[in-house]
Structure formats: C-alpha cells, structure tokens
Amino acid sequence: MTRTREADRAAVEAANTAFYEAMEQGDFDTVTDLWLDDGATEISCVHPGWPVLTGRGDVLRSYALIMANTDYIQFFLTDVEISLTTDVAVVTCTENILSGGPPEDGAELGPLVGQLVVATNVFRRTSEGWKVWSHHGSPVIPETDPDDPGDTPGRPTD
C-alpha cells in the first residue's frame, strides 16, 4: 500500500488533534504516548513563559504539573497549517485557550481565563504513527493603538 500525501496530512492532523484533546481530558497516559520515545532522540518543549525543557522526563513532568494545577482547559485551534516532508511534519496554529484553576469560596469552577498562544508542533513518523518531537508555544501580545491615550500596553483594542 502506497502512502499518499493526503493520508499523511490527515494522520498528522489527527495526531495534533489527539494531543490537544488529551490535554483537555487530563489524560496524562495519552499525552505520554503521543510524545516521541525512540530512546535516541531528545524531545523538547517550550510552554509560554517557561524555559526550554529538553528530555522526556522534564517535558512529561511539565505536562503532569500543568494537568495537576488546571481544573479546566479547552483549546480552540485556529489558523492550523501543516507542512510535511517524508518523515517530519510541522504544524503551526493559534491556540485559543480557555482555562480555569481550582474553585474559590465554594464555587463549582474556578475563574476562567482566556489566552492566545501561537504554537509550533513538530511531529516525526514512527512505526507507531506520528509522534510529537517538539512543542513551542508563545503568547500573543494584544495590539494597542498608539494614538489612543486610554490604551495601555497589553490591553486589547476595541
């Protein structure tokens, strides 16, 4: 059976979607399974505001910490683009994130916070399918209008 470019693109898109769905569900085992683990290649991850994490232990520990301290998270992906070679794929997207921490004062859910992050996910083909090799997320700083004296840096414009 010959692999087609369309089939590879669909498989990469499915792996990328599975990565975010596992995060939303707090499914650490699936997140772990989605990361490359060939024993020879270092994986890397940059969460917004974090230093570069290198190595399977540090990367997976970061996801365990995020999941343990996030009661709710949902990703709405936009601007998804996939670049593909034979065995490597690069997915860029905008993560429109809605998250919440622990409830306060007997509330059912903690305060929700929205955030925009641009992400690059690098996948590598393995015998078990496409696996995450590297993830890099950078926060999107809202634009301000320099002609509006009421505008402050970091505050979105109307």
Automatic annotation (TrEMBL):
Region of interest: Disordered: 133-158
Pfam families for this protein: SnoaL_3
Ranges where the SnoaL-like domain occurs: 12-141
InterPro entries named among the record's database cross-references: NTF2-like_dom_sf (IPR032710), SnoaL-like (IPR037401)
PANTHER family: NUCLEAR TRANSPORT FACTOR 2 (NTF2) FAMILY PROTEIN
Identification of the protein by name: Nuclear transport factor 2 family protein
